[in-house]
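Dear colleague,

Thank you for sharing your sequence with our group. We've completed the structure prediction you requested, and as agreed, I am returning the results in plain text so they can be pasted directly into your records. Please verify that the sequence below matches your submission; if there's any discrepancy, let me know and we will rerun it promptly.
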Amino acid sequence: MPGALSHLRVLDLSRVLAGPWAGQILADLGAEVIKIERPGVGDDTRAWGPPFLQDAAGENTSEAAYYLSANRNKQSVTVDFTQPEGQRLVRELAAQSDILLENFKVGGLAAYGLDYASLKAINPRLIYCSITGFGQYGPYAKRAGYDFMIQGLGGLMSLTGKPDDEAGGGPVKVGVALTDILTGLYSTVAVLAALAHRDRGDKEGGGSGQHIDMALLDVQVACLANQAMNYLTTGNAPKRLGNAHPNIVPYQDFPTADGDFILTVGNDGQFRKFCEVAGHAEWADDPRFANNKQRVANRAVLIPLIRQATVFKTTAEWVAALEQAGVPCGPINDLAQVFDDPQVLARGLRVEVPHSLGGTLPQVASPIRLSETPVEYRQAPPLLGEHTEAVLQRLLGLDAAQIEVLRQAGVV
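Please find the predicted structure tokens below.
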């Protein structure tokens, strides 16, 4: 069955992570995604290794694991659009596309006639999504923006890590480029909203595309969520709490006889059940701990008491006992344990796709589960320029001789 977005074509001029992440989501949902890359170089992340995919002999291939995380189900077409002929090719592809993704600096594509205004003139239905560090306007608009920097500037690192007065205290970034990934997700939502607007316009007589202005900083600030509201409603900037929660207690990691586990008590009833399992039913009736408001106020008293109790059982023993009692908890897994977890296995979160260099390529499955138009893993992330000839022939009508002339000129 065709994918939910199989009627759409996406021209992906983005590279690294935020834009490619959005492109991969759209591709997973069935859209035809054509990834435009620089001849001979390609997406920066192709070189961001080790690790690299290995071939059957155990030798590294050209494909970095980082690149392979965000580019499946796409076609790679190499075009040098610093050359006039390359600009023409991209414009002709844009004229036949529904969506364009790009993450060049503000105004960077105008010199090539590939900015929104130029492409709107030839395709008014085009949805043009620009992803930058700081957006299309404002005092920082011309600056380059990278995830790590935005995590710091956007406040996330002020909330992540141990308190300054503890050993190892200080700001810490999240272990994956979370701001890039969230920007890719928000960009996908924005693109789908723009498509809905265009489709509604079609029904009313003349749907149009639009320009989407996505900024990593905007996304990072928006995703501060309850912590942002904690500040906005009080005027007090939240501090780092390590693994503790600013608004819920107990909601953090605790030591066990053989490691650590996470306890996430969400209400007073769950706290009472935990106390019973822990052998300290009296805690639930202690006025200092009887409700969450009091537990937050007295966390400095309660948390050491819990830590003294949890060290007498193993992680597995705590998880088994608390699950039986209906108290949310879990282990702290490394990635080997994650991909061996029975729930992860049952949900099929690791998939294998054929790859011309590696034989097969493991991938992390899409979390999207659609009953009628499920995600399909049609092809592995493409080799650089793997589909150049096929796409230029199919969409632009160029023959092999014309493509060879462009290749000799370094255009493709």
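Summary note from our side: Residues 178-204 form the longest helix (27 residues).

Kind regards,
the structure core
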